[in-house]
Amino acid sequence: MGLVGLALGGYLTPISRILINPIVSAQSWLAKRYQAVQSLITQPEDVTSLRQKNAQLEADNSRMQVQIIELQQQVAEAQLLSTLVDYERRHVENQYIAAAVIARDISPFMHYVIIDRGSDDGLRRGMPVITQQGLVGNIAAVTAGAARVELINDPGSSINVILQQSGVEAVLNGQITGEIGLDMIPQNATVQPGDLVMTSGLGGNYPANLVIGQVVTVRSDAFALFQSASVQPAVDFSQLEIVLIITNFQPVDISPLIPAPGTP
Amino acid sequence: MINLIGLILFGILAILQSTIVSRMPLLNGTADLILLFIVAWALQDRVESAWQWCLIGGIFASLYSGLPFGLFVIAYLIATGISRLLKRRVWKAPFLAMLAATFTGTIIIQLISLVARLITGVNIPLLSALNLILLPGLLLNLILAIPVFSIMHDMAAWLYPEELEA
User: Fold this and answer.
1) Distance CA A222, CA A37 (A)
2) Is B113 within 8 Å of chain A by CB?
3) What is the CATH number of domain A96-249?
4) What is the complex's ipTM, to 2 decimals?
5) Nearest residue on chain A to B131, judged by CA atoms?
6) Which residue of A has its CA nearest to B122?
7) What are the structural domains, with CATH classification, of chain B?
8) pLDDT in tens, B29-76
9) How far does B162 lie from chain A, in Å, by closest CA?
10) Cβ–Cβ below 8 Å for B128 and A141
11) Are A185 and A228 in contact (CB under 8 A)?
12) Helix (H) or strand (E) run with residue A170 in it
């Protein structure tokens, strides 16, 4: 009764603390050692299961990465298509067909690409090909399911152009290096770097006012008949993926109207 | 059977050439996989289908190019002829023959392509064509020549197994 009374009165607490503390310490020491021994015994099983989980997670991770890449490609394609649709809406005067660039000419002397639309889709020879940035070229040959596009930087390409700021007319030629340059600029014309180069529509091969690029440098020789200039194309021809073909433009063949040399 | 394999092989090569190889130029020159495989095949011993494969490769190349149709066939036929000639002359050193055939074949094809463009009225500066297309293309072809020869050597051993004497 006396002990109970002392315990209820709290007088035994220091004594019980002195007794219990070593027991608790010993208990926790023993428990930790037991857990360590237990984990040592069961470790191989855990490692195997962890390895399996790790392999599964790595497989999941690689699958997710592939999905991310695919989705990024889809987003990029969707953005490209979106800009093309925007361009189409802003230029309602023309009718367009979109096509993917599927191949390039295997000869380094030819700057041509092959697209996945052909005569079955209404494409015809001579139709202009553009992107939202500007003029790409025109269709040089068509099959039922594909078409070959001559790029404006092909050495055989020659386009009548006009400089937007000065109104000067010139001829844009492709070069073997893949660059484009202006020729036949009159000596008295004032051409500045940064001038916007657009199709003039002369010659009937292209509609007017399609953006081609900007003048970079102008070369003027006092003894030459014309000035020349190099042009930075608006389109990156090495990154062509999707293009638009203007289907309601029919090129005009004016060659019969050009007098042959020697005819009166 | 062998021509069917050639058809499949050159179909794949033409696709690779137009989609991947033509997008990896050195300056403006590119490797010519079809030429390399035709030349390597023509240099193999016991191979009897060199001319047929040359025709198949030439037709595929012509389909993928804006150059006049048949031009690649003619160029590859000349390259095959030179390769067969080299095979007889330099038979003890096949790798050397491969390099020589690649060198001459590349120059022939590039020159024929250049002449074809000049004839069609396209103005191409000869020095630029030499520096930017012919020489880089030649270098790429020479780099790829030996690996391609090894591949075709294995293929020839598979398609034309050596007959064991009884």
Assistant:
1) 96
2) yes
3) 2.40.10.350
4) 0.89
5) A177
6) A156
7) 2-159 (1.10.1760)
8) 999 999 999 999 999 888 888 899 999 999 999 999 989 888 999 999
9) 36
10) no
11) yes
12) strand A169-174
